[in-house]
Design a protein that fits this description.
By secondary structure, this protein is α/β, with parallel strands linked by helices. It is built from 22 helices and 11 strands. Strand 1 and strand 2 form a beta hairpin. Helix 1 (20-33) runs antiparallel to helix 4 and helix 15 runs parallel beside helix 20 (488-509). The protein is globular, with a radius of gyration of 26 Å. 45% of the residues are buried. The structure holds 6-O-phosphono-beta-D-fructofuranose (F6P). The site of 6-O-phosphono-beta-D-fructofuranose has 14 residues, from loops.
Length: 558
């Protein structure tokens, strides 16, 4: 299909630091906010929680525990207006070329849109989205009803997703999050890493006769994915013969030639488009392995959830727009309060992989130091993202959040209803989550510590000596995102919330959130090094450290 040349993106705002609102925010921080604590802000505003809480769809965002007040919010919104955020949102939904360095739009929103939403409706290839979705649904249903089976006639029970980065993290995170939605008799297994151990372990456990391998790769050239795919291919050929390949391998990619060359059965190929970024691709055919495990209705519910957030993002004025507010708060914490990193703390173990998913989404998107126009940025951009499911996290790194020396804003993500265990246990998770955000905010003073130690029977001298070790400075900012329950629909909303938040942040910084040139250099060097690892004749030209390590590796290889 002829590629429609989209309008170039002309929305690069001025350097944010040169915008009047940025300068006002800097002054406002120095004069009004720096001298205050979160406790002060709560004391001054009895309705603070209500004033700084926003709901849309199934999500509620309480951002009251941030070091900001009404004046801050007003200035942040002014920054968004000066940076022309609304025009940027329109540009994304219209299909403008906002991924300027790769000369393409970023249209993951089209993957979950209805035709009536008119997302980039002028593009001819948009209608293809529904064709592929339909193809995907028919394929998944045929696997489930047994009309498509393996080479020996056995039904499939195990889905192996071979892919990495955006071709793995979304599927794997969601598969884990939606474990209660897995179809009876179906199991999901991720294979992503280059070292091959994931597949080696699975080969001991799985029966090739009932295993369907889904190769997900936008480019179909990624070293990790192709290495694992070739290993899986050899495994199936050895177990079932070459003819089995056409029934045991299915692929999602934009590279039709490479799918051909690999020998993927033409009916088992699912295409997508270059305007779907890798880390935004789970909504496309890349979600096939997920749909195979959770079923097409649940996959559609995930898309519907994301669409709900898309509609909110597209239609809601900036002041009530959840992704916009989250982006502005993140910019405030990063660029004005000086936070270097942000913790993602979901209180449902099923969201265990959510921090890893957000690491790619946020750090690959906004870890940039050059603006769209090629000039260096003048402020810090993407923060370091990390995290773990609570309450595991409490017993690991919360000590540093409570008593360390760094400002670390956190996002607490809290499903209210249990996603599978007893509600009594989820209620304990809720209590822990709220207790932690409260402790991070309020801290624990030396006076309180002395009083408590004295009440516990300690002498005045002993209490005075121990008290400093018990002090929690507090004042750590946090958001709390509530959802009624972890379902395909609510998870779709949550993921889209962060996708749009990342886009708004990147837009205000003037960077392109949709490319990832930084990943290329390491890939290139690895290709150059792979011969040297097994052949000492190729050490020439390597630096002394790499050379010495190669020599030591050779001696350890045994
Ligand atoms: O990590 C870099 C990256 O290009 C990601 O953006 C992408 O999700 C991943 O590699 C995998 O690429 P592909 O889907 O082409 O195999």
């Amino acid at each position: 299909m002829a590629k429609k040349k989209a309008k170039p993106h002309t929305l690069t705002p001025r350097h944010p630091v040169d915008l009047p609102a940025w300068q006002s925010l800097a002054a406002h921080h120095r004069q009004d906010i720096r001298p205050k604590t979160l406790a002060d802000l709560f004391a001054r505003d009895r309705k603070r929680a209500a004033n700084y809480t926003l709901s849309t769809g199934d999500l509620t965002l309480d951002y009251s525990k941030n070091l900001l007040n009404a004046a801050t919010r007003k200035l942040l919104l002014k920054l968004a207006r000066e940076a022309k955020v609304s025009a940027a949102i329109d540009a994304m939904f219209s299909g403008d070329v906002i991924n300027t360095t790769e000369n393409r739009p970023a249209l993951h929103v089209a993957l979950r849109a209805k035709m009536s939403d008119r997302v980039a409706h002028e593009r001819r290839d948009i209608a293809d989205v529904w064709r592929v979705l339909n193809q995907l649904e028919q394929f998944v249903n045929a696997i489930h009803d047994g009309s498509l089976r393996g080479h020996t006639g056995a039904r499939f029970t195990d889905i192996v997703n071979i892919g990495i980065g955006g071709s793995d993290l979304g599927n794997s995170m969601i598969a884990k999050a939606l474990r209660p939605y897995w179809r009876a008799g179906m199991r999901y297994h991720p294979v992503s890493n280059i070292d091959g151990t994931q597949l080696a372990d699975l080969q001991k456990e799985l029966d090739p006769k009932t295993t369907l391998i889904v190769i997900c790769s936008k480019t179909f050239t990624t070293l990790e994915t192709m290495t694992n795919a070739n290993a899986a291919r050899a495994w199936i050929i050895e177990a079932l013969g070459r003819d089995a390949l056409k029934k045991h391998f299915v692929a999602a990619s934009t590279n039709h030639q490479a799918m051909d060359a690999f020998g993927i059965n033409p009916d088992y190929r699912f295409g997508f488009w270059d305007w779907v970024g890798g880390r935004y691709s789970l909504w496309s055919a890349v979600g096939l392995s997920l749909a195979l495990v959770i079923g097409t209705e649940n996959f559609q519910a995930l898309l519907n959830g994301a669409r709900r957030m898309d509609l909110h993002f597209r239609q809601t004025p900036l002041a009530g727009n959840m992704p916009v507010l989250m982006a502005l708060i993140a910019i405030w914490n990063n660029n004005f309060l000086g936070a270097e990193s942000q913790a993602i703390l979901p209180y449902d173990n099923r969201l265990e992989r959510f921090p890893a998913f957000l690491q790619q989404l946020q750090m690959e998107s906004n870890g940039k130091s050059v603006r769209r126009d090629g000039r260096p940025v003048k402020c810090k951009t993407g923060m370091v993202i990390w995290g773990e499911a609570g309450s595991n996290a409490q017993h690991s790194f919360y000590q540093l959040l409570h008593q360390g020396t760094r400002l670390i804003p956190a996002d607490f993500i809290l499903p209210v209803q249990s996603s599978g265990a007893t509600q009594a246990q989820q209620d304990l998770a809720i209590a822990n989550c709220l207790a932690q955000s409260e402790a991070l905010m309020d801290g624990y003073s030396k006076e309180q510590a002395i009083a408590d130690l004295r009440a516990a029977g300690m002498s005045a001298a002993e209490a005075k000596e121990l008290a400093p070790h018990k002090v929690h400075a507090g004042n750590q900012p946090s958001n709390t995102i509530l959802l009624p329950r972890l379902t395909p629909e609510t998870l779709g909303q949550l993921i889209a919330l962060y996708e749009h938040k990342v886009f708004v942040e990147g837009h205000i910084w003037g960077i392109n959130s949709f490319d990832q040139w930084g990943v290329e250099l390491g890939k290139k060097l690895a290709t150059g090094l792979s011969d040297a690892v097994t052949d000492s004749a190729r050490y020439e030209g390597k630096n002394s450290s790499t050379r010495a390590l190669l020599e030591r590796i050779e001696s350890l290889r045994g």
